Amino acid sequence: MLRIHFNADDLARVRMAARPDALWESILSFHRLRDRRGGMTFGEWRSEARQRLKSETRLLSALVPQRGYFPDFLTPPQGSEGLEPGLEALRDTPPARLHTEVALLSAHRSPLRALPGRLVSLAEGKAESVARLVGVLRAYYQAAVEPYWTHILGRVEADRAARGRALLDGGAGELLASLPPVLRWRAPVLEADYPVDRELHLNGRGLLLQPSFFCRGTPVVYRDTSLPPVLVYPLSHSHEPAAGEVVAASLGRLVGHTRSAVLQAIRNGCTTSELARRAGVSLASASQHAAVLREAGLVVTLRHGNAVLHSLTPLGAALLRGGATPEPERYARNGPVTS
After folding, report:
1. What's the predicted TM-score (pTM) here?
2. What are the residues whose beta carbons fall under 8 Å from the beta carbon of 166, sequence distance 6 or more?
């Protein structure tokens, strides 16, 4: 069981990651690459990624076992700024930390399995070994993650919008209660099933919530509790042929498939640049479609600093639902509940 303990200061300092983290997505996707589960979500990606991967991955396999501990230094906070800032931070990892965390890999292995030789020089902090790891991670990201980044970004943005709505409706407690069902908010503790027992006391530092496309089933936290607290949690992957898909097809015939896609992309709110990415159109086209929908009373647009934020009006939301009246939704202590 993972138990994350909050106090009042922590609740005031809960925040959402602004974007996917390049290194978390890389490391967690490497888990998915060797995992046969989740075929509907990851099966096609798995096949395509394996075809692209021509670089050496034995070093990654040694550092990232299929189950259990992998070093915290592989996912520095700078990965949220992009691949290169994350790799630069990894390159600057102090040798003492490299030694400590690589040694933990040995502690988590079977006594019959010695630490692979390729990790010994990394544990010694040798510059050429660190440079090799940086090169392997960059090549892996370019083959397995970068081609899908736009899709990953769109999914994370949609999740952020849903969490933001919960925060606006009921504050940090409701935000935590809105997280996927693998996480259970029982104030003042956030719980999740976990491979080992772990107690994380935030002690006023707050918590960064990092949604991840490639995280599956179990959320992830740093093993080193002195590091800035981050909770990586899985995005929801729905494969049900929902009634909304039928409505979307009909709506596409009515207003055009591109404008229907734009309206659906605005469902949880977004900026114009986010809208362009989600709908797969140019920035100018996204702005034009949003203007038409706004004139029709389906969308409202507000300016926030240098950006504009689009959201659906009640009429626009009803159109996406096919005219159905939504049932009221509330958030219980352990997740969303429909009354």
Report:
1. 0.76
2. 174, 175, 177, 178, 331
The rounded Cα 1 to chain-centroid distance in angstroms is 21
- Which run of H or E residues covers position 126? none
Tokens of 28: 């967690």
Residues 6+ apart with CB under 8 A from 325: 318
C-beta separation of 290 from 269 below 8 A = no
CB 207 within 8 A of CB 231: yes
pLDDT digits (tens, 9 = 90+) for 308-339: 888 888 888 878 776 544 443 333 333 333 32
Strands 2-5 and 14-16: unpaired
φ, ψ at 122 (rounded to 5°): -65, -40
> Concatenated DSSP letters for 156-198?
HHHHHHHHHHHHHHHHHHHHHHTS-TTEEEETTEEEE--SS-E
Token pair listed for 250: 């009909």
In angstroms, the CA 144 to CA 141 distance is 5
Q: What is the pLDDT of residues 90-115, one digit of tens each?
A: 999 999 999 999 999 877 665 445 56
Which pair of structure tokens corresponds to residue 171?
A: 């504050």
Burial of 195 (0-12, 13-18, 19+ CB in 10 A): exposed
End-to-end CA distance of the chain: 29
Residue 232: strand, helix, or coil: strand
